Amino acid sequence: MNRYKQRVTLAVAAVLLPFTVACGSEKGDSGAVGVQQPVTGIDWRVDGITVGGTTRPAPAPARLRIDEDGRAAGNLGCNHFSARATVHGDRITIGDLRTTRMACGEERMAFERALARTLTTGTLTAERDAAKLTLTDGDGDRVHLSCSASE
């Protein structure tokens, strides 16, 4: 292997390794979030929501990120949002959302309203299994997330 190929290989490995570790590529124990399975500092893609027993897929832009400093931000499917968040073990509370005010089609707006309501109705219970995360509210409604493709 010539030196150029070695440098490119090492550079790619150096860039991709932190992302693999951040999302978790190993199958861990399902269940409550633990020290080995953090939820902060990860760009989560919203895959869908289950509200009242009905699961709906998320629009492509739907995202969530909670930083260690208590800032949450993302996209509800149409509008961007930010909020304060607290994480205590497997319990997450997201405060009032500050959002942009773009209008999208009714289906996306209905999804966005349901997602915003589920994220902010109280304390959420987090379950993480490898690269998947489920947030469940007190009514049993769930937000299904996975590590973003950029992770």
Automatic annotation (TrEMBL):
Classification via PANTHER family = DUF306 DOMAIN-CONTAINING PROTEIN (PTHR35535:SF2), HEAT SHOCK PROTEIN HSLJ (PTHR35535)
Q: Does the keyword Transcription regulation apply?
A: no
What keywords are assigned to this protein? Signal
**Protein name listed in UniProt:** META domain protein
Q: Which domain of life is it from?
A: Bacteria
* Family matches, as Gene3D superfamilies: 2.40.128.270
Signal sequence, renumbered to the chain: 1-24
Q: Which residues form the DUF306 domain?
A: 37-143
